[in-house]
Amino acid sequence: MIRFVSTRDRKGPSCTVSEAMLKGLAPDGGLYVPETMPSLPASFSISGGVADAMYQAIKPFFEGDELENDLEEICHSAFNFPVPFKDLGEGRVLLELIYGPTSAFKDFGARFLAFSMEKLLMRRGEEKTILVATSGDTGGAVAAAFWRRNNLKAKVLFPKGRVAERQRAQLTTWGDNIESYEVDGSFDDCQKMVKEAFMDKSITEGLSSSNSINIGRLLPQMAYYAYASQLYLDMYGKKPVIIVPSGNVGNVTGCFWAKAMGSPIERIVMATNANRTIPDYLESGEYQPRASVKTLANAMDVGAPSNMERLFDMFPTFEDFSQAVSARSVSDSEIQRTIKEVYDEDNYIICPHTACGERVRRDYFQSCPTIVVSTAHPAKFDTIVEPLIGRTVPIPKNLWEIIQKESYAKEIGKDYKELF
Q1: By C-alpha distance, which of 418, 409, 413, 416 is closest to 178?
Q2: Is the pLDDT of residue 44 over 90?
Q3: pLDDT of 99
């Protein structure tokens, strides 16, 4: 059985993957990582489709765990939507992670976590309140996944004035067991409130997190990279460079885990927006988190990425990190230019986050076998995209149904105690 330990003390107490999911954050404030990284099963195959492939990739982490016998059912229930490639020609592929219930890649992790937690809590006769800070898409995916789940409530925190209107609708139209809080601050403030709540011993027992700090969010993200890289190798005969739009770096950490498990990935590249914390670290050798900057790719507006703890755990020295990790920053003007270029040249519409990845591909990896991760549906960013391409972006049925519902949100300051 694989045990999970804190990034801050690998020699400290360990726990199972189910316990790590329920806790969210390690007691010392660190993030859970496996004591040893397993390999993909020798029999790993994508022939059974994406849900089956993701189940195979996640399974080694659950051997001997209390959810081991439920895992296949959870995966097939959670990952019940397509994960296609969009081929732009010459080995240039977009991995479309945009067809879940809230039209963003966050649906994979949120649904897996919700379905897993529900089974665990009902079996144990316990209840949990989920805290989630969001810079855009995470909160919507969590709200949709946890809505009306047994033994679970969720409190969603988002920064006032810093999410797109359609994103805001996805955060605030649920009711029932979902509470939404509009924080007078940045995403980093929201994330800080969640961490502070977890460190408050008077309330932490009944709390868990569904941010990418939760291991249950990360494992599905690892799994779709295992699937996608093998699919690319089968289709094109080469290992791909994978370019991942990155903010809180949970998604790209999943990619690094997939590579560490043996997935056929040539290289991993982060595409950030104007929040340059990671590119600056690679240039200077000094890691300096800072306040986030507001950009068109708002779900990536993160100045102090939580999952850097997991990357530092994998690559503990600057030499290790700089050899394994690449990162490029993309400005708002470059985002706009890329959205227009892709539409004009490929007759394809992308969101501002995907545009960051595509800009990096066009500028640095044009001649390489590449996968750019498409992280959100462009209809969520209509006010940015439509003026650039000169047409209306079709709204997916699931998104349209959400934005028609009544909105509920409570405005609060930056004190986590206002949540309770």
Answers
A1: 409
A2: yes
A3: 95
Angstrom CA distances, 144 to 150, 191, 211, 344, stand at 14, 20, 14, 34
Which residues have a Cβ under 8 Å from the Cβ of 49 and sit 6 or more positions away?
Answer: none
String of DSSP letters for 228-294: HHHHHHHHHSSPPEEEEE-SSSHHHHHHHHHHHTT---SEEEEEE-S--HHHHHHHHS---------
Per-residue pLDDT, 210: 85
Query: What percent helix, strand, coil does the chain show, rounded to 5?
Result: 45, 15, 40
Contacts with 272 (C-beta within 8 Å, 6 or more apart), sequence order = 245, 246, 247, 278, 279, 300, 327, 328, 329, 330, 356
CB neighbourhood size of 176 (10 A) = 11
361's enclosing H/E stretch is: helix 352-364
Q: What pTM does this model have?
A: 0.92
- Is the sign of the CA dihedral 141, 382, 303, 263 positive or negative? positive
Calculated CA dihedral for residues 204, 120, 126, 35, nearest 10 degrees = -30
| 12 token code pair | 């400290």
CA distance 54 to 225: 9
Judged against a pLDDT cut of 90, whether residue 33 lies above it is answered with yes
224 to each of 175, 278, 353, 412, how far by Cα in Å?
Answer: 31, 24, 18, 36
Contact 67, 122 (CB under 8 A): no
Q: Name the least confident of 102-111, 136-145, 388-397.
A: 136-145
Evaluate if residue 320 carries a pLDDT over 90: yes
- 158 DSSP 8-state letter: E
Asked whether the beta carbons of 112 and 216 are under 8 A apart, the reply is yes
